[in-house]
Amino acid sequence: MTAPKRQPEHHDHDHEHGHAHGHAHDHGLTGGRKGLLMALAITLFMMIAEIVGGLLSNSLALLSDAGHMFTDTLALALSFFAMKFAGMPATEKKTFGFYRLEILAALLNGVTLVIISLYIMYEAYQRILDPQPVAGTLMLIVAVIGLLVNIIGALFLMKHRETNLNIRGAFLHIIGDAVSSVGVIIGGIVILYTGWYLIDPILSILIALGIIAGAISLVSESVSILLESAPSHINIAAVAEEIARVDGVREAYHVHVWTITSGVYALSAHVIIDDRPVSGSRELLDAIRKRLIDRFKIMHSTIQLECERCDENGSCSLPADIKNHR
After folding, report:
1. DSSP secondary structure string, 241-304?
2. Taking CA 16 as the corner, what is the angle to CA 15 and CA 21, rounded to the nearest 5 degrees?
3. For the whole model, what pTM was predicted?
4. Angle ∠(185,51,124) on CA atoms, nearest 5
5. What are 263-287's pLDDT values in tens digits?
């Protein structure tokens, strides 16, 4: 009489290390939220100043930048509240918490930037067909103030821009504004010394193109995360090879890696191991987990241990009637 086939072992290391990682991520969220709040206050103030200055000077470049500032104000407010919700604990239904709100906010920020930039280009085209006089002095003064304000706002966000996609989106907004302000300053100087009013809509188009370039990158990365794509810096084959180097492991396959939110990666994999007692699997799993953290910064890992390979559909010894209904 043959012994019943042992079911595959399933282990999840999220809970064991989630607290330490969650603490680090929450610390980053707190610092990021403070930076966002300061940037929001600065941007709101500058938006009002540029609207007034743009109307008084009749500068499309300045009004365009004010419009950009308006979208920035909305985007930064959205980012702030998204990060606040992202820090909420996981629930029975939202098992990964609310981290994805950050990605949704970043996506909305990027789309908003593209839309406002296209509108700026349309208005600039109308100005090229029918040039309008611009008060260069007032345009220049407001633009210089705008540049200084944007630099201050960017400094508040700079520390966290590489670790959080949502803050990176907000940082791009601020940098876009700073570049816009430089363009408006140049335009103001040209108008003051030459009276060439066409520089105003031309600069508006250049500003819009620069904003679109940054926004497309942000949208692309956000969509990639929402589609559960593997992080661009992680090679799946390399991950499988690294797991297979652990003593006692024969092969890793059906390896999936995805991003939960900025800097938070998850993995699931089937791992074929040498036959051993169940009590010995913990040490093996710890060794695999350590390699995943050290080499790829993958903190959340769910690994199914097996002594023989499953079929290509990933179903291990399922009854025939269940297979037929898959």
Report:
1. HHHHTSTTEEEEEEEEEEEEETTEEEEEEEEEE----GGGHHHHHHHHHHHHHHHH-EEEEEEE
2. 85
3. 0.66
4. 65
5. 788 999 999 988 877 777 888 899 9
